[in-house]
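2024-03-11 09:14:02 INFO worker-7 job=invfold-0412 stage=load source=structure_tokens
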């Protein structure tokens, strides 16, 4: 069954990537819109849809506001970088709620729900199970790959996390230098949920910093900054995050 779908996301790269993943999964993508108002305008004359993929935080109208104004009922899958809207999303009878960056197998499960016409009725406890941290509360260690098995890293020895090709990598001190280790996570949001009290800071879309690991900071053009986390290892901080990080570091 070929699903006819449309999507809305204000981030061009995320919008393009989601459209590509949907097409690769066999969907017919009828529209890719940059915000809520343009999506609502398009929907007024749109053909019947099997599904609508919505970001939540968009200019003009949030994904939740778009659902409230839909001219006709459409099965909705929310796609967002934030887990805190999940309860409200399922209150709207959303078919699914996917955290960015999207893994192909996770998207496939959402498409299966669309094909089957299933709308999950999830209790608060079930939502906690879906979005819960993958490490115990208060944990300071996490598993990483080591050959055919796993070893455990201490968060306090970790400088930062990055995501690449839907895999999260931890950077930690080992053998006198900074080393890169593959974790079991697929998104930085999962890391944040695993260590909610650790004060981890998203300094770029693909970079999650442990501020206590910062050895130095250097302002650069455009209101951005470079932070040093190890000898010869500098990370660029986005313009929007730089003031907050400087304040946190007492600068």
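2024-03-11 09:14:09 INFO worker-7 stage=emit residues=251
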């Amino acid at each position: 069954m070929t699903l006819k779908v449309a999507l809305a996301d204000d981030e061009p790269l995320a919008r393009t990537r989601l459209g590509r993943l949907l097409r690769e999964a066999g969907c017919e993508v009828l529209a890719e819109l940059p915000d809520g108002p343009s999506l609502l305008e398009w929907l007024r004359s749109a053909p019947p849809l099997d599904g609508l993929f919505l970001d939540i935080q968009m200019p003009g109208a949030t994904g939740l506001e778009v659902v409230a104004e839909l001219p006709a009922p459409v099965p909705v899958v929310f796609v967002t970088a934030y887990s805190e809207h999940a309860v409200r999303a399922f209150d709207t009878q959303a078919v699914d709620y996917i955290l960015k960056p999207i893994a192909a197998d996770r998207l496939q499960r959402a498409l299966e729900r669309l094909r089957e016409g299933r709308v999950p009725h999830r209790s608060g406890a079930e939502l906690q199970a879906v979005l819960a941290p993958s490490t115990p509360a208060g944990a300071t260690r996490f598993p990483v790959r080591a050959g055919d098995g796993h070893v455990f890293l201490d968060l306090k020895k970790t400088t930062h996390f990055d995501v690449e090709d839907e895999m999260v990598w931890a950077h930690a001190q080992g053998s006198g230098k900074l080393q890169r280790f593959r974790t079991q996570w697929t998104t930085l949001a999962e890391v944040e949920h695993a260590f909610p009290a650790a004060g981890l800071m998203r300094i770029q879309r693909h970079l999650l910093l442990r501020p206590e690991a910062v050895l130095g900071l250097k302002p650069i053009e455009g209101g951005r900054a470079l932070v040093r986390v190890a000898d010869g290892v500098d990370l660029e901080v986005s313009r929007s995050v730089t003031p907050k990080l400087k304040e946190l570091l007492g600068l």
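2024-03-11 09:14:09 INFO worker-7 stage=report msg="The longest strand covers residues 167-174."
2024-03-11 09:14:10 INFO worker-7 job finished
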